[in-house]
Design a protein that fits this description.
Strand content: 15-25%
Largest sheet: 9 strands, mixed
Distance between the termini: 14 Å
Structural class: alpha/beta
Strand order of the largest sheet: 3-2-4-7-1-8-9-10-11
Number of helices: 10
Order of helices and strands: HEHEHHEHEHEEHEHHEHEEE
Amino acid sequence: MSDILAHVFRTFMSQTGQRKELDVSPPPAACNTLLVGEQSTSRSVLLLAAVTAASQMGLRVMFFAQKQIQSLPVSLQKCVPSLSPESLKKITFSYPRTLEELLQQVAALHESSNTSPTPSSLIIVDRLEGFLCAPASSSQSGFHPGEQSCAAHLSALLCDTAAFLTQVLQQRVPSSAPCRVIASFQSERDTGKDNRGPSAMDPILDVLDRYFEVRCTLDQDKSYEAAAAGLWEMWHIYFSGTGITDTSCTKEDRTGVAREWQMFIFPDGSMEFKMV
């Protein structure tokens, strides 16, 4: 599987996993990823991806979120205890409040590429549903009217911007890795606000899947075994989508294409991953 999240999971594999010497270069193929799951956990994974891309891969990261990030999660501080200020300078945080502001700021990345010495190689959007939803105080709470077209418009712009920045990066340095997009989304079904039943398809998620080649789904394990293992939280991570191309990979490369991982969050806040 060819996305940055796979590199993150390999980097922070548990000591009992198949750890080996890792190539810190990003994978060669462009692959945009949709992270689906609970908000706070998804944000921790997004921030871990941003920090790993900046500190280990040397990539410039553009991170969009509605709510300002006051401090790094404890889990991230545990994973990267010696994070340098220089690495954080490679991450630009922006806080658009509305869908319209997000669209404008993403579109502006086309223009900034002419003046920036190094355009972004990774675009991250935290909580797409927050931009596609009307404010709770609005008379039209829930998703915007025409929410599916809004989701399609935003997704298309993100993918187009990544493709454009890829061209700019490779014109300047032909060996540059492509620009990628990672965005998180929590469906109303996951929040318990959807009354259509567990088997109903989320129309927004269906639209997003058309634009993001890989879906990464977080599913919390609330079983007794997880609690008995002394874990604070245990999550199953499933990869799916057209961007997973594991048929040509050898057994030795399986850590890069694994369709399922486990994420362990311990009481002290530390986080580890294990390939299943």
